[in-house]
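Case study.
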Amino acid sequence: MSTDKSSVIDPVRIKRTDEIVNAIKETIMADNLTPGDRLPQEKDLIERYSASKSTVREALKSLEVQGLIRTKTGPGGGAFIDSMTESRAMSLLSNYLFTREISIKDIYTLRKLLEPVVAVSAMENIDSAGIQKLYDIIAIYDHEPADEDERWQQRMAELDFHTVVASYSDNVLLVFICHFLQRLLKDLAVCKDIYLKPEPVDRCQGIEYQYQLIEALRRKNAQKVQAVMEAHMNYAEHVMLELQATLQERFLSEER
Amino acid sequence: MSTDKSSVIDPVRIKRTDEIVNAIKETIMADNLTPGDRLPQEKDLIERYSASKSTVREALKSLEVQGLIRTKTGPGGGAFIDSMTESRAMSLLSNYLFTREISIKDIYTLRKLLEPVVAVSAMENIDSAGIQKLYDIIAIYDHEPADEDERWQQRMAELDFHTVVASYSDNVLLVFICHFLQRLLKDLAVCKDIYLKPEPVDRCQGIEYQYQLIEALRRKNAQKVQAVMEAHMNYAEHVMLELQATLQERFLSEER
DNA sequence: AGATATTTGTTCGTATGTATT
DNA sequence: TAATACATACGAACAAATATC
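After joint prediction, the assembly is written out as follows.
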């Protein structure tokens, strides 16, 4: 039993960098560090973990990418505990979904369930400033677009409408998921094709739903909020799938 | 108009490392690299971006943490395109929620909506092997636990039951979210306290729901699957909130 | 406003570890 | 076993950013 250098199991060789990452994470937990608190500076970390500058820096880079710290140069600088932005979290999650196939149907399966609920939840917190924001957004797309670029801006603003609504909910999880679904619709290649086509759709219908929704939000009528959003989502899904089918058909006929 | 060195706006100073990260990301997109494909090796990247070894390595570390590449040493080694595991994606997302407050109520608001739907979606794909897996999991907690450790294992297995069910759905997004919610319930400190207390709850009730669910899955009875899961989730939420309240009460009385 | 001190960011050369042949 | 090809780790020197005086 003298071979205690490498364990009998020894499944994975842990790299020095990752050791340091884990060690730092543990001290963050142990010392209960919160955003704004400072980590020891590079040279101290080098000493504490008796590692080289590069290794420590790679470890810090790892923590930075994970959204746990950010660094500042200059006197009083160093690594500070950070709390990840929603935007960064969504980017990282996008990397996971990047290699996987996501359909419009999948997204709307979720939106149909969640948007009505998040809207009701938002109703309890939204104020007149929030209501005004919604009107301002609608103003972006309450008229025919002059060109392709404005058409695009209008499609994005239509999604922003829901982003603002959701942001008033205090269910962090629910808000994050709704925002992420909205972002997916902005980013997905399939959707981009759809948005750019001059749609044969009655654009006013969507706006009508949104006016109704605002009214229901103002009156704190939960049933109405829920019902309007459900109808709105069903309609939006229908439009998207319809347009997608049209595009596919056109694509196939060009193939021949 | 000769000052084209720094833009008029020049909002953020982009670090060399991040430049390289972005450049590599772009080549991944442009060359349409897929998991398994190799990136140029370190020394080539050093040459291409005329950066130092450390800087390139920090860039690669960033990409690794983002789940986009993994590296291998030895001949034929280097950086390979990777596709992030679900587990890694959930870890990264946990970092986002780490600093935010998540309640059991928030989680169950989502589970009540999503678990019934994911179960119906899974119903279409689950096979007899899957059904067997579910029975095997129930066997872990269909009896009184002998000790604290077994009690804990049983609580985890109860969540695994739903993880397996969800895994048969082909809606990647929906699956991910359900799995994430299940993982949150495993990790949340509040929940850990709850699971460890010898529960005054009728444990058999949950198992009964699960047997009913399996039966409905086998018979491809969508309405039943949906209904049973809804009832199950409502019951689970009720139990959790009840136990949480009990714990809080006990905590408060100890304060005095 | 400018000089200075402090701290991270980048470079380079070298040495070590690891997997393939 | 040895040679090879690659990542991993080290450390000293220098550059850039920034707070303070």
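Observations recorded in class. The two ends of chain B are 74 Å apart (CA to CA). Chain B touches chain A through 42 residues (CB under 8 Å). We will return to this complex in the next lecture.
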